[in-house]
Amino acid sequence: MTTRFEMAGALVEKVKRQRNEIGDHGDPYEDALLTGVVSVELKIIVKEIFDHLRSALDYCAREICDQCSSVNPPKVVYFPIVSKDFRQSDFKSRVGKLMPGVLDSKPDLLAVLESFQPFTSVDNNWISDFASLCNENKHEQLSVTQCTSGYGVASKADDGIFRVSQFKRDRVTPFTRSPLMLLQNFPLDGSGEYTFTYVSFTVIDEEILWFLDRSISGIEHIINELKSKL
Predict the structure, then answer these.
(1) Three-state DSSP state, 94
(2) Which of 144, 208, 210, 136 is nearest to 178 (CA)?
(3) E runs forming strands in 143-228
(4) HSE-up of 148 (CA within 13 Å, CB side)?
(5) Statement: the pTM of the whole predicted model exceeds 0.90
(6) Among 217, 43, 57, residue whose Cα is nearest residue 136
(7) Which of 159, 160, 172, 165 is nearest to 194 (CA)?
(8) Total domain count for the chain?
(9) pLDDT for 33-57, tens place per residue?
(10) Cα–Cα distance between 127 and 207 in angstroms, integer?
(11) Are 163 and 127 in the same domain?
């Protein structure tokens, strides 16, 4: 019998294939850079990716409830994701509300679920942003837009190697990973300032390809961790 963990894993594999449809020459992302318009096709790909990833987490929550809950679980079960300012002391009650009865029979799962949340590490902040985008998606307001104000500085070192630094529109915040971009005004001699265009989620101010990859790898990790604990 297929478990919901297997279904969750299959959704992640499907998402990986969808992710590979964007970020190359002649694809919807490049079209957005060249035309300045985010196409319906790109919006749909992104929407489906978030739908599948959120469903994968909720499948895991349902499987845990079915295997571990001391009570009959409700018809709808959700994987707990909290905001960046959420207090760890309140998390146990949140799990009890979203996955009732689980901690009564398997209290060690609390620490596992906590380990995915922002209050344990800033490296987990992505999952709160992921939840925010899922809420936007649910209300048909997924904010994918073209940004035109990326800023970069190129320089040539004494060893002859060219180096570039890229920043978001505030000209201060660096990118976690260099975005796929359309360069503008790049200095011909390789030294100086320039601008570029990239596509971002405006709600969280992140380049979409990096954030999609972070979400996919993060959720795949969560699925594997939860599966190993049961």
Answers:
(1) helix
(2) 210
(3) 144-156, 162-167, 182-184, 192-201, 206-207
(4) 7
(5) yes
(6) 43
(7) 165
(8) 2
(9) 999 889 989 999 999 999 999 999 9
(10) 15
(11) no
